[in-house]
Amino acid sequence: MSPLRTTSLRRRVTLTALLVLGVVLVALGITIAAVFTAQAERNLNALLTGRVQLAQQLARENVAPANLVRRIDARGVVVSLRLPSGDTIGAVPSGERRQVRAVLSGPPRIDGAELVLSADTALLDGAERTLVRVLVIGGLAAIAVTAVALLLSMKVALRPLDRMTGLARSIASGSRGGRLSPSRPDTELGRTAEAFDEMLDALEASEERMRTFVADAAHELRTPIAGVRAAAEAVLELGPEAAPEQRERLELLLVRESQRAGRLVDDLLDLARIDAGLRLERGPVRLRELARTQADRLRLLAPSLTVTVSGPEVEVTADEGRITQILANLADNARNAAGDSGTVEFHCGRYGTTASVVVEDSGPGVPEADRERIFQRLVRLDTGRGRASGGSGLGLTIARGLARAHGGELSCHGASFRLTLPCE
Q1: Contact 55/72 with Cβ under 8 angstroms?
Q2: Which residues 6+ apart lie within 8 Å of 306 measured at CB?
Q3: pLDDT (tens digit, 9 = 90+) per residue, 254-301?
Q4: What structural domains does the chain harbor?
């Protein structure tokens, strides 16, 4: 992932706003200048056309040529009338001018006379230059005023971000519990602040769970480690004259406590792998065959226990070792709950694109209020009430984590546990 560009937001917003304003002002100036030029051209053409029409009317009325020139004369317009006799009345145009020529008709003295109207375009060009100058100066002034206003108001506009930064730094320094609590979560800043609060809730909840888990794990490890230490010290204190039975009993206790600590450490490592993203070695797995293997194991551990396997053979693509770990945990819990003289049943099935293994026993079952809690870490229920008695209290947590890593689920339904896995 490329690094986040962290240029000044105040500078970025200011420059963006000024750039947009500049583009708008330039477009507006060009539009105004074009409209002004077009309108000036239309006005000039209308003026010259009107003078020509007036001259035609005066000629038909037999107005004297000198009087005609005087009457159609206008500011900015030079009139020149060349009579049929060759005489010219009026000024001769010079410089850049817009000219309109017309031939007059009327009495003999003016019939066929050529009328030339010349408009001085210098005034029009000057007006255009003045307009452009005004637009440029006004645009620059507007940009300058906008820049100053943005710089002064940006601090107020970015105050919510400054508050987010302050809260993040206070949390990094160890403060907890602070929240932004946006008044309007439907705005951009409101949604950002709400997501920020949700992130803080998740982080603090995760931190609390981790703190509790570490404390509980340390407490759980303390017992087997204390047993190992006590057994080891007792073995060392035995003299050469100690009875072999006593030494063997202490050594057996030392081995059992070491195994207990080792199992807890293995469970903790499994949880860490699940949290970090477990890597599965997938392949074809026959669920009924795995269930039958666990049933045979239970019969060896508790010969008086009645164990049955039912349902069709179902094949899924999964990690066989991890699925075996799940079923072994469920089988051991079922045996503990049912007792050596109870019954345990494995039932395999398939429903559409989902395969399942249900492990049910004759025990008292898990109360409805505890059916989700037993999947939490280091939770152990009383022996007479259900599944998680004995052990480290991590078995069901690991089993559900492994099931979900496969895209499946592990759920409790009283005296039965259902493992569901996707299948083709």
Answers
A1: yes
A2: 342, 343, 344
A3: 787 787 777 777 777 777 777 777 788 899 999 999 999 999 999 988
A4: 9-156 (no CATH), 172-277 (1.10.287.130), 283-422 (3.30.565.10)
H-run or E-run covering 188? helix 188-237
* Residue 94 burial (10 A CB sphere; 0-12, 13-18, 19+): exposed
Rg, C-alpha atoms of the chain: 49
CA-to-CA distance for 346 and 151, rounded, in angstroms? 73
Q: Do 114 and 101 contact (CB within 8 A), yes or no?
A: yes
The reply to whether the predicted model has a pTM over 0.70 is no
pLDDT band at residue 183 using 50, 70 and 90 as cut-offs:
low
Instruction: Round to whole Å and give the CA distance between 332 and 329.
Output: 5
423 contacts 416 by C-beta, under 8 angstroms: no
The mean predicted confidence, pLDDT, of the chain is: 80
Q: How far, in Å, CA of 253 to CA of 414, rounded? A: 35
**Cβ atoms of residues 234 and 250 within 8 Å:** yes
Apex CA 306: angle with CA 300 and CA 310, to 5°?
105
pLDDT at 392: 61
Q: What is the per-residue pLDDT across 386-406, written as a single tens digit (0 to 9) for each?
A: 344 345 677 888 899 999 999
d(C-alpha 411, C-alpha 371), whole Å: 8
422/355 Cα distance (integer angstroms):
6
Question: Which amino acid is located at 174 in the chain?
Answer: G
